[in-house]
Amino acid sequence: MALVLLPLGLMAQEQEAEDRPVKEKSSGSSRPVYTGFSGGMMLHGGYLFSDTPEKVFSNEGLGSKSYVKGLPKSGFEYGLGGALRVHLIDHIHLGAEGFVSTMPLMSTGSNVRTAWGGVFCDYYGNWGNVRPLIGMTIGGGSMKRLYVPETEYVPVSAGGADSTIYNSSYVKTPIFLLDPYVGFEIGLGNHMALLIRIDYMLSFRIPNDGIAHLGKNLKWSSFETPNGPRLYVGVMFGNLKKKR
What is the number of helices (H) and of strands (E) in the chain? Predict the structure, then answer.
């Protein structure tokens, strides 16, 4: 809904600028802090990987170790999302974003789906119509892992007698994330830009006692996989003209 209202906000801002009387800028006038706003949608794709299949599915009930070793531990993923941001001093973006990614695994419908959101800040330059940027997103979300076996059951041994595990396995893990990224925008006029960026998300499992003790329990041992680089391509709409 917020993205739909962007064109209306731009029209109102342009009308206000036309109605405002023109004032001469004194030599000692300071640069305005707020220089505009923008928002848009982005498609993304990437290649995610993990050390072992056990870390991909995070479920000890899948069967014997020899069977789990045969499951995939990497693959391509894709998704989409959106962002809203304000522009400060014509060099800083401050905003919020949210995305959903799906990593298909096997032909049975097994997959890893990651949903996340957070606040971000990046610094950008102005080289004509090109604006290189570097920034970081801080937020959280969840990794949902669905495993559907290729056969109807997985044989295991329990107390010397054979037993079976039927159907699929589903695990949901809450995560805290740090997401550094680099990229650039190409201006397509005063109110549109093509955004291209690359990130590498660092996601950490949130402990059972919640985010209250996250700082104390944030360790590399709680690092969640699969993870890998993602390429984002999208279009941003808003007040994208460089302020002079």
Answer: 4, 11
CA–CA dist 139, 28 (Å, integer): 40
Cα dist. 215→6, 120, 150, 180, 204 in Å? 37, 19, 40, 19, 11
161-193 pLDDT per residue, tens: 555 555 678 889 999 999 999 999 999 988 999
Separation of CA 159 from chain center: 45
What value does the CA radius of gyration of the chain take, rounded to a whole number of Å?
23
Give the whole-angstrom CA distance, residue 118 versus residue 139.
Answer: 4
Is this structure's pTM higher than 0.85?
Answer: no
Other C-beta atoms lying within 10 Å of the C-beta of residue 232:
22
From residue 89, alpha-carbon distances to 7, 134, 180, 242 in Å are 22, 16, 22, 10
